[in-house]
Amino acid sequence: MVESQPHLVYEAHSTDYQNPAAYHSLVQDHFAILKVGPALTFALREALFALDQAEKEWLGPVQSAHLRDTIERVMREEPDYWHSHYHSHGHQQYLDCSYSLSDRIRYYWTHASVQKAQHALFDNLVQQPLPTTLLSQYLPNQVKAITQNQIKNTPADIVIHKVMEVMEMYAQACFYNSAVSKETI
């Protein structure tokens, strides 16, 4: 049916966390729009938590911005975005709030206190950049990009690069399928 309708475009919802081959298949099956959400904010959280931990080791707890501590406090004080999604208790609830693939933490990044801590983290790491040896412990792909002069050793570049790793899977699926289509013409 889809082959007889050249102007139809399909949208695939919730395509997060798929095997890269699945993205190729979706595009090949005429899903021109691959909706992504939690996978991107999950990568954002990974990068920010990694920078937060590296910053604590680099600058010590007194000078650190305490981004992770801040977002955990805000989530406890304002549970509206996660309490109906995570029915666990104790340590499991902590793990769910911090690391769940549904990434309910994403709704807290714009909170004023969290934004303030994130800006402080970035300011700290711009003024005193992390050594690549320490950064490598937490974000090895980003260190590789830094040492190959693909990105700068700034928190913004590091976070964007981490998020773009997820986007690259989508881009590769589209590029691969468009290259295959051109070869068959």
Please give a handful of descriptors for the protein shown:
185 residues, mainly alpha, two-stranded parallel ribbon, 2 strands, 4% strand
* Strand line-up in the sheet with most strands: 1-2
Gyration radius, rounded: 20 Å
Rough shape? globular
Number of helices: 8
List the helices and strands and how they pair.
Layout: E1 10-12, H1 20-28, E2 31-34, H2 38-59, H3 67-77, H4 90-99, H5 112-127, H6 132-138, H7 140-147, H8 155-184
Parallel strand pairs: 1-2
Brief characterization of the structure:
The chain has helices at 20-28, 38-59, 67-77, 90-99, 112-127, 132-138, 140-147, 155-184; strands at residues 10-12, 31-34.
What would your notes on this structure say?
With 185 residues, this protein is mainly alpha-helical. It has 8 helices and 2 strands, in the order βαβααααααα. The protein has helices spanning 20-28, 38-59, 67-77, 90-99, 112-127, 132-138, 140-147, 155-184, and strands at 10-12, 31-34. A two-stranded parallel sheet has the order 1-2. β1, α1 and β2 form a beta-alpha-beta unit. It is globular and about 65 Å long. The model is unreliable at 180-185 (pLDDT under 50).
